[in-house]
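anyone else get weird line breaks when pasting these?? whatever heres mine. first is seq + tokens for prot A
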Amino acid sequence: MSEERLCKHEGPCWENAFKGFIKAFLQSLAAKSMISLIFNFILEKGYKHPMKSLMKIFSIDTLRFVGFASFMNILYKGTLCILRHYRKKEDSFNYFVSGCVSGLSVFVEDPGRRETWALYFFARFVDIVLRVNGKKYNIDINRVEVGIFMITVCFMVYCYGAEKDNMLKSYYNFLDLLFQPSRIEKFCLNLWSKQNAEKMPLK
């Protein structure tokens, strides 16, 4: 390694990336396994078939999640070290590119969860861009974030009332439980949504 090494971690870069992969693998496997076991025992009465419940730890769904978390870690650390080595710089560009590359790991995840992760990554990206520019141009980012939050909430409530066919069923049910509309309100919302679906049918 050169004297002007930019990486702050101990040991060679490949070793640091591999350790990150193993650590993410074990942590995500433990977290996913515990969640699966708890839900299986509570909701599906898995205690009646303990071996079947334990086998679900190694299901395709679990392995997809573990692979997603592990590859995201190794891609981020590996790309960051490579950029430091070839660019001979330590700046925000390295972190931006590394984050984008690590985001490709979402394709390992279950297709049903990819959209959720993609939205989370996009939200984090917007937050980072706002904070970087806030420091640069002396902008009160907290007010900007509150404004964005209000806009997204308005859009969410509109979709709940008028575009329910475009929402994930689980998320719609969550909002339905949260808002608890009356029968008359529910009737009006369903009528509104039906009229919108007839005017602008999904293709």
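and prot B, same format (seq, then tokens)
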Amino acid sequence: MRSVVLFIAMSLDGFIAAPDGGVDWLTGQDSAAEAADSYGAFVPTIDTVLMGWNTYHQVVTELSPGQWPYEGLDCYVFTHRQASPVPGVRFVSCDPCALVDQLKARPGRDIWICGGAQLIRQLSDRIDRLQISVIPTLLGQGVRLFPALAREQKLRLTGVTHSNGIVELTYQPR
């Protein structure tokens, strides 16, 4: 069965973006050092990407404005906005939990929750694995990874790696 995976980076103090939404702080402790490519190893394990409107907008306007980085993957963007059709992207306004349940029942590779914080919160009960890269930066404020969960969730640490000051933690629900 497919797994739902939260693969994301956060600052040491728990933020996934600066107050203005910026992510230019997503670097290791030494910009000249080469970091492990956990993203490159992760992408072949998925075939579906889920994201909210703000994450989608940031991808197409700031992070990868000239080229859609999720070519060949099924991409669902949760929004109530009217959006022009984009090849490879489905704009949906349905219940995220219901869609994830449908996707998990289909054959395929894993499902990636790319962001943002609101979508992560809505799908927190559906996450099968959390892969969180902790960046050696203290932001002090910004967009929290887990702003306000409905209930406590206990996790089991299943993996730890580190490179260039970035610690990647892998958890599964207990």
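btw re prot B: Helices lie at 38-42, 53-63, 96-105, 117-122. The domain at 36-173 is CATH 3.40.430.10 (Dihydrofolate Reductase, subunit A).
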